[in-house]
């Protein structure tokens, strides 16, 4: 392989290294992407909190209802025990029972409303918990497959890096410097000449230059400055 051929090969290795490096970064991003999981977890936590609040409200409504029912029972027993003879007091007691019963009716409505809310949230919590379970499973599977992929890419990167170093050591250091300098400035250092044209800028290469390129000399395109390579 001639000098320029070596540089071209070096460029191919550099491009491969670059693309593998990019692939590795992508895999690492995917490996750490737990947004869906975190979102589901926080949604579940907030729904559970809401459920807890509703259950507390339900409990206290139940207690209040029991208190009211107890009061009615006490007055009823007073009314029907026959101990209370005073008609005025009897009327007052009946009035009181009536008032309490309407309070009971309202409290029962509140309680029913709370119960149906609790039921609704419980169903939601169940759905989110299932979804979270599914997401966790997916996450774990992805960790395994992506972890494997990451390892493979790392092995390839080591191999490519080794090949690159071996090749670079064989290349004349002045030529290597030229290559690195152009690569840094232009992204790509070596371009093919096809049908007499530089593939970097599509300008026709002068015959005198073309002949030097053909002879294997390191020639830079007069237009785009890249190293010309003829296969
Ligand atoms: Zn050019």
Describe the structure.
- There is one protein chain.
- The protein has 231 residues and is mainly α.
- 79% of the residues lie in helices and 4% in strands.
- The protein has helices spanning 3-32, 35-81, 87-170, 173-186, 207-214, and strands at 190-194, 197-198, 227-229.
- A 3-stranded mixed beta sheet has the order 2-1-3.
- α1 runs antiparallel to α3 (87-170) and α2 packs antiparallel against α3.
- The longest helix is centred in the middle third of the chain and has 84 residues, at 87-170.
- It is rod-shaped.
- The model has no long low-confidence stretch (mean pLDDT 96).
- Zinc ion is lined by residues 198, 200-201, 203, 221, 223-224, 226.
Spatial arrangement of strands, main beta sheet: 2-1-3
Q: Rounded to an integer, what's the Rg over CA atoms?
A: 42 Å
Number of DSSP strand runs: 3
The major pleated sheet works out as:
3 strands, mixed
